[in-house]
Batch of 2 targets.
Target 1
Amino acid sequence: MCRPGKHFFAQTSVAFIREYSIIMQKEHNPGMTAMLARENRNMPIFLNHCGVSKMLPASADAARAQIDLQAQKGSLMFQDWVEPLNDFKAGGAMLLGTTPDNVSYVKNTSEGLSLLAAGYPLQPGDEIVSYDLEYPANHYPWKVQEGRGAKLVLIQNRTHAELCGGLIEGPGGFRFEDVESKVTSKTKIIALSHVQFTSGFAFDLKRMGEFCKSRNIDLIVDCAQSLGSLEIYPEQMNIAAIAASGWKWLMGPVGTGVMYTSPALREKIKIIFAGADLMVQGADYLNHTWNPHTDARKFEYSTHDFVGTSALAASFKSANAFGIKRIQERGRELQAKFLSRIDQEKYKPLLFSSENRSGIISLVPAGRLNAEEVGKQMAVQGIVVAPRAGFVRIAPHYTNTDAEVISAADALNELS
Ligand SMILES: Cc1ncc(COP(=O)(O)O)c(C=O)c1O
């Protein structure tokens, strides 16, 4: 039996560090390798990047540095200060193939989507098309708009059995035609999660974007379960806006998020939150001229989170140094390794066709233990997986090694 004992942790740490060294060599930061060796010793095997991720060491360091700065200097911290939001925007823009003026800091996905939903010029009778099993972040902000006469039109879930054959019931996804069939002349917005948090189903962004462009509909996407693991290029894909959390696939801190908005969408959106940072005159506080920023600062209404933006800027830097295309490929490689090892009689994987695959593999346990129990037993062994909606979700990332996913599959096989 292969359980991750002491020796195993020592081995995986070395492989992990080797992978990181590649990034850090590019960054000319030799001290980082030694730091990673310290940080990663005796770490569990972490395969829950679709939940709350382990923060990248570089991101945690950046956060600590910002906290220390304020702790030691208070307002004097600004003497030699470099605004972390600039790096944040540059890094986010590089990841998304856009320019920094289209990238905003938000606290979380819900805040970003709420700002867009509440500010969108919806008239009574206008329709928003979404999916019935969305995560709350991409449901309630739209639901609230029913208060001003808009209608939230939901496509019904199709199980994996319906989409791909087989027997697996429960949350799955939808077909492109399901969305198309709900669209009418009143549809203004299609609001979907790129990747469903339950099944790991991903919809085809490019195809949906083309459709939305042809019908003059704004495609607004919750990318909490994909940004940092899959390639997303809103300008090429005709996406009006995306919002994402920083603490999943980006491996940043809880309480951080990022939002992309196209200039055309921003122009339509009414300002909902306002404060000093919204205005072009900035720190000229007694000048109350109404002169709001029109770039992505339109949504950064007041004092932002220096600690969080510093950390998430470091996460973007790491993802960009590795390369998002390579991260996506590496995720697939790790999944293939895992799937070749897992006993598919004991765990039924929800496998989708290539264009609907994401970083998540959801498994249905077929043995005596349910998903929650599997999650608990794996945690006892130092392996972090994510039970949700009856599935055990496995979400490996570019920071994982082959040995880790193989070890996780072996441990799962031993369980049921
Ligand atoms: C699809 C999706 N959207 C959003 C979130 C998180 O939203 P928020 O950043 O508002 O907490 C999650 C978290 O699991 C998610 O799976």
Target 2
Amino acid sequence: MTVSTRSPRVERSRRTILEMLASTVDLSDAPPIQAMLDDYTADPARFPAAHRREVPFLDDNPMYTRDYSKCVLCWRCVQVCADDAQYAYAINFTGRGFETMIGTFFDRPMPETTCVFCGQCVGVCPTGALKAKRSGCSSREGPPTRSCRPPAASAASANEIDRINELPRRQVR
Ligand code: SF4
């Protein structure tokens, strides 16, 4: 059996998916996906009536922001927060259909979830939907420390992050 991954039919399907994605989601911080749009000569203007995903910008913790207008629902952040790496299970899918989003249980602010502010979700997000508030706080450089917290972080927030980070993993699952 021959599997073709770049046949005209496959390319047409990918082009259409990219066009639908670009017509509904803000991809301005996603250079790899923009490169794919060029590669497949995708034209988002083909869907001028598409309903754009516009949701509130979330800034509810001292470590990172969440802009789900830029989210392509790739699921990377959910997986790395769960069984792939962190076992914190702070986020998951919410909603159905076009209203599907990544969120916390009962829409709680991030400091009220099991999030340990490891930064893994920020490190894997391909679209800039998740952003560290300061450089030097990405997962590639290890867990957050006091020195990479923004000045605006309250002492209470900083102490809470220390407390959660020091818990044995099983207690925060
Ligand atoms: S990693 Fe980024 S783009 Fe992917 S689902 Fe999470 S927030 Fe959305």
